[in-house]
């Protein structure tokens, strides 16, 4: 009878302990994390059923909670709160990173969080206030814990305490096993998916983060002695273009390469209520060789990645910024190439050279000199550095000095004033916008680019006044997109539809201009061949008569070679690729990817286009949406069977090109050892 009474008491204690477990922090924090994960999913993913975050996120959340229940005898609430903060931080980072880059953050990107402090205004501009609710509970619960107002059924007797721990561990063990099984079923079948967005959607955001850490094994590199220019050309399968006989035509000329911050191609020729947004660049386009079908190829490093790609003709790394991943390598580069042909080389950037590891990057690229904030100062600051006016004015002084040295020079100039979030001081604003554009992201963008264009116009005038124009080759291009699709509010999307006359697409987003002008040499013409930033180096080499025979490169001379293939790695899922007629964006792979036609994407085929003023604006939102969505579905999206779309062979070759590029670069000696 005594044993039965003891057993009955043990059962009652076990049931009581299980009840306390179900009413304790495990359940409360589960409900909290469901709300937070749902918020992240609403921001990042489209048309997701309500059950999907539960199925994908809860297993990882419960697995973490079970470890607390198993091992924590004391301070469980503090451990739950700390884990809550960690997981909330991951969801918040995923939201903000997606809003800026359009991809899912991973630990490689989080390792560069120190760079965010320099672009905090960009981050804050993407922050909708309701995102901060993700941290509200932490403040409240933390405050209650500090004041010792929150208690969760603390046992009074040692026997009860022992039974409770055993019950918690048994329950946690069952839940942990169940969570790990479901988590593996979410992760394992989707590990080979090309699209990071698709992976995160199928694995869950937390599952994706765990997968990127545990499965981070880089592909086996191709031996460096097997990476040759012939192999690259075989994969690219370029074709000969009709002859534009300019090979070596700019030999011995100064090379001035101007990289424009966040400059997209739709700005060329755009008018607002009869006022040109970029009048000086419009005039330069009319006098130059203009490539409207030109695309960015940057990654996490944005501007610094553009500097890397155009100066090396290699692709960005699979993870991280090129200036961080490759900056210790002895890089083949345009500065080294030009130096070998008697050129002086210098780069001009108004920010701190240590930002994005540029001090190391510039050494690896082989620039003779760099000029940063220490030279340009902090007067007349826009964004986080001296204005474009200061940049061009002080750069001109150095160009004159190099000119007087008697040998040609290569100067790479990085503009910065039109940096996201496009907030100019009132004294710099001269573009008048219709009221509907005021205080919007597209409106602020147009205002900033109008100022940037004015500064470029002054720079070109000064080049002519100081006698630096006639003996130069000027190359102008955008570094990366300025208006990410995923950063636009619904009101912004309507404005972009108004600008384009149709839906704003991924193709438009990554489309940047390339303008090449060698006064007296280059004809004024529009060249339709497909190009990317990786093609700038060989195009400059061709014009200046510099041989690339002994320099590996992945780009092509846009004046001599067609049939381009442009791999993309960021802002779009890995494996995205452009050919001459379309953009392909994979999902799990090639079979379920999307094809976006390049036909009629840009506005370069129109003579000029104009945004009407308020009194002329009669577009009805409902009618416009119907028309635009119909246009988008018929001209943009189609199956891979359509003629001219990216083929499976082209997709595979693009992946091989990226792998060859990374394989070659990671096997190069360190630049200090090579000197």
Topology:
Elements lengths: L1 H22 L1 H20 L6 H21 L4 H26 L5 H4 L9 H6 L10 H11 L11 H30 L8 H8 L1 H10 L14 H8 L2 E2 L13 E7 L9 E3 L2 E2 L2 H8 L2 E7 L7 H10 L9 H4 L8 H6 L4 E6 L8 H8 L3 E3 L1 H4 L4 E2 L2 E2 L1 H17 L4 E6 L26 H25 L6 E7 L11 H11 L5 H5 E7 L7 E2 L4 E2 L3 H9 L16 E2 L3 E3 L7 E3 L3 E4 L8 E4 L11 E3 L9 H15 L1 E2 L9 H19 L4 H4 L1
Parallel strand pairs: 2-10, 2-11, 3-20, 5-13, 5-14, 6-7, 6-10
Antiparallel strand pairs: 1-15, 3-4, 5-12, 8-9, 11-12, 16-17, 17-18, 18-19, 19-21
Helix pairs in contact: 1-8, 2-3, 2-4, 3-4, 3-8, 4-7, 9-10, 18-19
Your description of this structure?
- It is a multi-pass membrane protein.
- It is found in: Cell membrane.
- Residues 253-546 form the Sulfatase N-terminal domain.
- Pfam families: Sulfatase.
- Residues 623-642 are annotated as: Disordered.
- With 675 residues, the chain is α/β, with parallel strands linked by helices.
- The chain has two domains: 2-214, no CATH class; 226-674, Alkaline Phosphatase, subunit A (3-Layer(aba) Sandwich), CATH 3.40.720.10.
- The protein is built from 25 helices and 21 strands.
- Strands 2, 5, 6, 7, 10, 11, 12, 13 and 14 form a nine-stranded mixed sheet that branches. It has a five-stranded antiparallel sheet with strand order 16-17-18-19-21.
- A hairpin with a 2-residue loop joins β3 (270-272) and β4.
- α18 (388-404) packs parallel to α19 (441-465).
- The radius of gyration is 28 Å and the shape is globular.
- The N and C termini lie far apart (89 Å).
- Residues 603-608 and 617-642 have low confidence and may be disordered.
